[in-house]
Design brief:
178 residues; alpha+beta; Outer Surface Protein A, domain 3; 2 domains; 4-stranded antiparallel sheet; 3-stranded antiparallel sheet; 2 helices; 20% helix; 38% strand; elongated
């Protein structure tokens, strides 16, 4: 039995769960999310908990068991609390600014880069070198943060670029002069 999959997911107050055949919908104070569940996996709401089970011990079903439970737990946390990724920009002249619901990056290229927010994601710029990506869908928040980081990944020699807050960059020595 999957150690992750057999743990029940507690439903916080203010979150409603609707099961319709193989579709689960969660509504909470931050918004609503829905996801299709694979037919091999069975989801039940018992008391104030969501229980995920599988039909047998085939390899695919064992893999889907823990995955489905983790995805549903992330949905519950997203509609109740939300998710946030913080990124910082390091480098002389590198900055970010908010333009409506998009971010405008200046990262040392000959042009500025615009990153538009998907429907359920919001941006917050704390300083010109520190910004946050917020949303209820953990997967989408991570994707948008990774896309922002990919504009200028941290350089291993000088450490310049866009990085997650608290991310450690392994520095390289570089060439030595004679």
């Amino acid at each position: 039995m999957s150690r992750v999959g057999k743990q029940p997911i507690p439903i916080p107050s203010g979150v409603t769960v609707t099961l319709d055949k193989q579709k689960i919908t969660l509504k909470g104070p931050k918004g609503s999310l829905e996801r299709e569940i694979r037919p091999e996996i069975e989801v039940k709401v018992v008391d104030d908990q969501i229980e995920v089970s599988r039909q047998n011990d085939e390899r695919l079903q064992r893999a889907l068991h823990g995955l489905t439970r983790a995805l549903i737990a992330n949905m519950v946390k997203g509609v109740h609390e939300g998710f946030r990724k913080s990124l910082e920009i390091v480098g002389v002249g590198y900055k970010v600014e908010l333009k409506g619901n998009a971010l405008m990056f200046t990262l040392g290229y000959s042009h500025s880069i615009l990153l538009k927010a998907p429907p359920s994601v919001t941006f917050e710029v704390e300083k010109p070198t520190l910004f946050h990506v917020d949303g209820i869908d953990r997967e989408l928040v991570g994707q948008v943060a990774a896309a922002a980081r990919a504009f200028r990944k941290p350089d291993p020699y000088k450490g310049k670029g866009v990085r997650y807050l608290g991310e450690h960059i392994r520095r390289k020595a570089g060439k030595t002069a004679k």
